[in-house]
Amino acid sequence: MAPIERGSAEWLARRDVHMLEQATEIAVNGWTMVGVFPTEEDAKDRNFHFCYTIGRSLEGHAELIVTGMSHNAGPLLGFLIDTWGQVDEQTPGVPFEVRSGANDGWLVLAPVPDGWRDELMTMTRAQVGEGFTALQVLWTDDEERWPWEPGHARMQRMAVEGDTMPVLAGNDWRPEGKRVAW
After folding, report:
1. What pLDDT digit, counting tens, does each position of 119-175 carry?
2. In whole angstroms, what is the distance from residue 161 CA to residue 158 CA?
């Protein structure tokens, strides 16, 4: 089967159906998410999978993005939102502890600069408009190392696979203060 040409009538029809499905899920659940895999063309500029929420900003909450994972991050985002309701009530930059069995460790929410937000979160922008706030979810590995710390297990594995998990706030961004249990 030949790929569908971007901008063709079939491509536009499929996009419209997908947008309607997303809008329905947002109306029912309050949010949805989309996972993105890099294409060969994307890999020239950025070689990472990511996923993000769509619709949380319609209720006045920050949208969330996870880099280094695509559809697999759905359970993590769902867990965060289901467990803590509006996870963005956490102070961005202050790590908080997660103990759930499968997702044990520390998380921190980092601000997403507007340029990254606008480049990566296109479906959110299409559904909710311009100017929404986005926070990146960053987490420690089993040894409680952050992605920017030497030896972070996921970062090492991803480097072998040619993928990355960038901190969108910048290479020098670090959490503030000490870790807190919530």
Report:
1. 889 999 998 999 899 998 888 877 888 877 777 766 655 554 555 567 788 767 777
2. 5
Write a three-state SS string for the chain.
CCCCCCCCHHHHHHHHHHHHHHHHHHHHHCCEEEEECCCCCHHHCCCCCEEEEECHHHHCCCEEEEECCCHHHHHHHHHHHHHHCCHHHCCCCCCEEECCCCCCEEEEEEECCHHHHHHHCHHHHHHHCCCCCEEEEEECCCCCCCCCCCCCHHHHHHHHHCCCCCCCCCCCCCCCCCCEEC
